[in-house]
Amino acid sequence: MSDPVFPRLALIGIGLIGASIALAACRSGAAGHVAIHSRTAKTLERAEELGLGDSYHADPADAVKDADCVILCIPVGASGTATEAIARHLKPGSTISDVGSVKASVIAQMALHLPADVHLVPAHPVAGTEYSGPDAGFAALFDNRWCILTPPPEADPAAVARLVDFWSRLGANVETMTAEHHDLVLAITSHVPHLIAYNIVGTAADLETVTQSEVMKFSAGGFRDFTRIAASDPTMWRDIFLNNREAVLEMLGRFSEDLTALQRLIRYGEGDKLYDLFARTREIRRGIIAAGQAIEAADLDRPHGKDDDEAG
Ligand SMILES: NC(=O)C1=CN([C@@H]2O[C@H](COP(=O)(O)OP(=O)(O)OC[C@H]3O[C@@H](n4cnc5c(N)ncnc54)[C@H](O)[C@@H]3O)[C@@H](O)[C@H]2O)C=CC1
Ligand SMILES: O=C(O)C(=O)Cc1ccc(O)cc1
Predict the structure, then answer these.
(1) Nearest to 227 by CA among 251, 204, 253, 245
(2) Ligand 1 in contact with 97 (CB < 6 A)?
(3) Which residue is closest in CA terms to ligand 2's atom 6?
(4) How many CB atoms lie within 10 A of CB 221?
(5) Rounded to an integer, what distance in angstroms lies between the CA atom of residue 230 and that of residue 208?
(6) At 311, is the pLDDT very low, low, confident or very high (cuts 50, 70, 90)?
(7) What pTM was computed for the model?
(8) What keywords are assigned to this protein (predicted)?
(9) Is 168 in the pocket of ligand 1 (CB under 6 A)?
(10) Ligand 2 centre and the CA of 91: distance in Å?
């Protein structure tokens, strides 16, 4: 195993993503010592029972002491308060990052409190599940998935390169873009789809002519997929919508216009146009699957590919 990218890593928050980073960092040797902080004693104890890290700290200042990299793994709305609590204790020259699903607002919240001698390199692993908490974490979560870095223009290239190296060792494919572009892309590919799922499950549950038991009984098809997404953590998703307000509202506006157009096609029986749209969306799905398979095939040639991990 090659040298750790970060001899000492601190994780602030140890839910699905924090726990998965701890496990993947241990699997790959990308971090030496992993120090863990959680806001609640119960979660910290559970993280220790699961053996996720090397040290466990009730005080976030203790967790980040001497850390080469600190990663916030908490809901995006808590980024400012969490950064304020650790800012004075960060090691000069160290990197501070996060995993939030929204970038511009998180950067603004964090930058307000950070000293000039610490490198801010925000990140978003585009990989997850509808489960939360330390028990939900698993080492393979980031394998062959994208991790998007959104370093501010003035970020230190060496600090960015270290974080690229770290996420690659965790199994991810890394891409860099601006925070604003990230927030626009994710609004349509992730945030609006979640909002649609929350809405359709809420609408079905409220229908007076359909009983709750019928919703359960006949939810074998597309609706079942929506219920999985709508089971995602309420705090996390409340924070995402409030912190990516503009991009979500922009994409939602376009979505509503297209939905109204579809409504008209159905009303006026325009079957050919409905067919053309559905044929086009089927091609998009096939393209996504093909692209995923290409990434997986290419990954088998890389040193941190699945075969290596399974062997180690
Ligand atoms: N769940 C997912 O599928 C993905 C989540 N993300 C992002 O990762 C971050 C963490 O998400 P998960 O690990 O899924 O959440 P989680 O709910 O599993 O874990 C969150 C952790 O943050 C702690 N926490 C909650 N509120 C806090 C506060 N106010 N101050 C300090 N700590 C607090 C919790 O105790 C817990 O340890 C979020 O920002 C989310 O947007 C990114 C990619 C995928
Ligand atoms: O479970 C799913 O379908 C997800 O979409 C997981 C997810 C949630 C939030 C993110 O920022 C990235 C991935």
Answers:
(1) 204
(2) no
(3) 128
(4) 8
(5) 20
(6) very low
(7) 0.93
(8) Amino-acid biosynthesis, Aromatic amino acid biosynthesis, NAD, Oxidoreductase, Tyrosine biosynthesis
(9) no
(10) 32
Q: Are 123 and 163 in contact (CB under 8 A)?
A: yes
Are 296 and 143 a contacting pair, CB within 8 Å? Answer: no
- Cα–Cα distance measured from residue 134 to residue 15, given in angstroms and rounded to the nearest whole number: 4
Cβ-Cβ contacts under 8 Å for 307 (sequence gap 6 or more) = 300
Residues 8, 83: Cα–Cα separation, whole Å: 18
**204 pLDDT higher than 90:** no
| Ligand 1 neighbourhood includes 233 CB (under 6 angstroms) | yes
Contact by Cβ (8 Å): 48, 104: no
Ordered domains of the chain (ranges, CATH): 6-177 (3.40.50.720), 181-268 (1.10.3660.10)
Buried b (16+ CB within 10 A) or exposed e, 248-257: beebbeebee
192 lines ligand 2 (CB under 6 A): no
Question: How far are the Cα atoms of 174, 186, 261, 276 from residue 257, in angstroms, in the given order?
Answer: 34, 19, 6, 18
44-76 confidence digits (pLDDT tens): 999 999 999 999 999 999 999 999 999 999 999
Q: How far is the CA of 78 from the centre of ligand 1 (A)?
A: 9
